[in-house]
């Protein structure tokens, strides 16, 4: 895939970039290693000041970077502005809290005595250069939620961004440099996916984090396992959205529309499978389908647009094939389902019912504004349908019954259970999945400790 900015609203190639050669990659690896030796000794106060300055600059750049993201991958510009603001918030969150999250810990005194020590301290030390392989769908947020904790922990970052968002990648490198971080603290590598393996095998790279597809996760995990390097993976999702009889149906349907089409439906944590108790199925389906039909599809630069184009022509083709497969196998199209005429890689908000286990759309992740409806006879069946997937990123449940809340929280196979609301990442809460959605956690104290050497310092009497 060429490294290029291609406007998905028009299909026009706006700018192409040459991939970095071996000499430039080597220079940047050397710089990362050398910078880490000194950066790791900086204080939390020094790092915090730099990260707060980056947040301030990002706020100043909000409109320009939002428009750049929209140009590169098609999200509505109002959502791009919100993404940039969220990134600045996360930077400040880690700048304010990293010292406490990584403070030295002293075990219980009785355990210290039992070990024969006079003192034991657990310290969190940085690992070194960390390679981040990041996707295009949230081109700023996915990177910042790695970079902010990694830099505050004393690590340095090497970013291999998706090839269709090079301007966003270069902006991030420039942002951290303008904030005062030395050049080697955060570097963007304009390289193709084929160059990742060799970089990950380099001894100077100590760990890797990847957000992306299942095949990409397997490749990175395989190499990292061979080289015995720490990884965090956030892969696909096919999140369930369960609606029970006690739910506020109007609110559940309204939020369901947003939960499905956020980011033009191209989100791992977007609700995709809507599992509705039979007692309220018809009422919910009518409200939900009406809401999906009412969305405005169009130019993502226009403020009133709800859904823009998919990020790539291939992505639209893949989604279209999945919908066609379901329809040919007997699924009913309640709205949408047909590619519009004209330029750009648009696909309409679509609702399908009558889904069975053999359809691709049941087994695979639908990355676009397509929702599937399921009817559940009771709570037990709702749980079975929700867990009938190889993914386990997040989940949504709508109920006012606390016993049902406890049951879903216990039995849903996912990294998150969001009750009476849609899944949304927040810097204070751990984020990640189970099963084929990956492993490890981002954000919160759990995320900042993922790339730390947790060191036990034992002192004898």
Automatic annotation (TrEMBL):
Record-linked InterPro entries: Ald_DH/histidinol_DH (IPR016161), Ald_DH_C (IPR016163), Ald_DH_CS_CYS (IPR016160), Ald_DH_N (IPR016162), Aldehyde_DH_dom (IPR015590), ALDH_GabD1-like (IPR044148), GABD/Sad-like (IPR047110)
Protein name in the entry: NADP-dependent succinic semialdehyde dehydrogenase
Residue ranges annotated for the Aldehyde dehydrogenase domain, each copy included: 3-457
CDD domains given in the database record: ALDH_SSADH1_GabD1
NCBIfam families (alphabetical): PRK09406.1
Record keywords: NADP, Oxidoreductase
Family affiliation: Belongs to the aldehyde dehydrogenase family.
């Amino acid at each position: 895939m060429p490294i290029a900015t291609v406007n998905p609203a028009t299909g026009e190639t706006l700018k192409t970039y040459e991939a970095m050669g071996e000499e430039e990659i080597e220079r940047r690896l050397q710089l990362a290693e050398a910078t880490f030796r000194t950066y790791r000794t900086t204080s939390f106060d020094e790092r915090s000041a730099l990260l707060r300055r980056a947040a301030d600059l990002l706020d100043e750049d909000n409109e320009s970077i939002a428009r750049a993201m929209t140009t590169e991958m098609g999200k509505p510009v109002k959502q791009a502005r919100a993404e940039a603001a969220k990134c600045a918030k996360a930077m400040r969150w880690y700048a304010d809290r990293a010292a406490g999250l990584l403070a030295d810990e002293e075990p219980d005194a009785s355990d210290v005595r039992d070990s024969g020590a006079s003192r034991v301290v657990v310290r969190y030390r940085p690992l070194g250069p960390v390679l981040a392989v990041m996707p295009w769908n949230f081109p700023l947020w996915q990177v910042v939620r790695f970079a902010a904790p990694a830099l505050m922990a004393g690590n340095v970052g090497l970013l291999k961004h998706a090839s269709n968002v090079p301007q966003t990648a270069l902006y991030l490198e420039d942002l951290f440099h303008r904030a005062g971080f030395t050049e080697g603290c955060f570097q963007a590598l304009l390289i193709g996916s084929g160059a990742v393996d060799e970089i990950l095998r380099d001894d100077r790279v100590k760990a890797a984090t990847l957000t992306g597809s299942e095949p990409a996760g397997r490749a990175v995990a395989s190499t990292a396992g061979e080289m015995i390097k720490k990884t965090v993976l956030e892969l696909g999702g096919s999140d369930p959205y369960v609606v029970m009889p006690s739910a506020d149906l109007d609110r559940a349907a309204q939020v369901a529309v947003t939960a499905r089409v956020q980011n033009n439906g191209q989100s791992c944590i977007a609700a995709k499978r809507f599992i509705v108790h039979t007692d309220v199925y018809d009422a919910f389906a009518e409200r939900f389908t009406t809401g999906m039909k009412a969305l405005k599809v169009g130019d993502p630069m226009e403020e009133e647009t709800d859904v823009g184009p998919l990020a790539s022509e291939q992505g639209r083709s893949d989604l279209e094939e999945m919908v066609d497969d379901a329809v040919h196998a007997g699924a009913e199209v309640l709205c949408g389902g047909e590619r519009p005429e004209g330029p750009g890689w648009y696909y309409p908000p679509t609702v399908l019912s009558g889904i069975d286990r053999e359809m691709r759309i049941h087994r695979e992740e639908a990355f676009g504004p397509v929702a599937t409806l399921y009817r559940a006879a009771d709570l037990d069946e709702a749980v079975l349908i929700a867990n009938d997937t190889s993914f386990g990123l997040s989940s949504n449940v709508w109920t006012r019954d606390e016993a049902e809340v406890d049951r879903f929280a216990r039995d849903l196979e996912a990294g998150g259970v969001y009750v009476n609301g849609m899944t949304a990442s927040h810097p204070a809460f751990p984020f990640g999945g189970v099963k084929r959605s990956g492993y490890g956690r981002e954000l919160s104290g759990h995320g900042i400790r993922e790339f730390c050497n947790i060191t036990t310092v034992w002192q004898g009497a």
